[in-house]
Amino acid sequence: MKARILVAEDEEGIRQGIARALERDGHEVEVVTDGMAALRKLEAEYFDLLITDVRMPKLDGMELLR
């Protein structure tokens, strides 16, 4: 099953690694570098899954989930 996945991670290597692995499995992946960018994406678009770092600049993962 193909899913639309949003990855919110401030460390580039981790962010790109997660995205590549998910894309290899056939998923549609979008990436953002902080919690505020993730929040804007989530308000504007539908995603099946959010993968978020707990500690990020501007808005951390726990605040994003709330």
Quick recap:
This protein has 66 residues and is α/β, with parallel strands linked by helices.
Show the helix and strand layout:
Blueprint: E1 4-8, H1 12-24, E2 28-32, H2 35-44, E3 49-52, H3 61-65
Parallel strand pairs: 1-2, 1-3
Task: Describe this entry's structure for a reader.
With 66 residues, the chain is α/β, with parallel strands linked by helices. Helices cover 42% and strands 21% of the residues. Strands 2-1-3 form a 3-stranded parallel sheet, with helices on both faces. The radius of gyration is 11 Å and the shape is globular. The model has no long low-confidence stretch (mean pLDDT 92).
Name the descriptors.
66 residues, alpha/beta, 3-stranded parallel beta sheet, 3 helices, 42% helix
Tally of alpha and pi helices: 3
Q: Let me know the number of strands.
A: 3
Strand order of the largest sheet: 2-1-3
Roughly what percent helix? 40-55%
Kindly name the structural category.
Answer: alpha/beta
> How large is the radius of gyration?
11 Å
Q: What is the CA–CA distance across the termini? A: 27 Å
Major sheet description: 3 strands, parallel
What is the helix/strand order? EHEHEH
**Strand-residue fraction?**
15-25%
What's the mean pLDDT score?
92
Q: Quick one: overall form?
A: globular
Sequence stretches where pLDDT stays below 50 over 5 or more residues: none
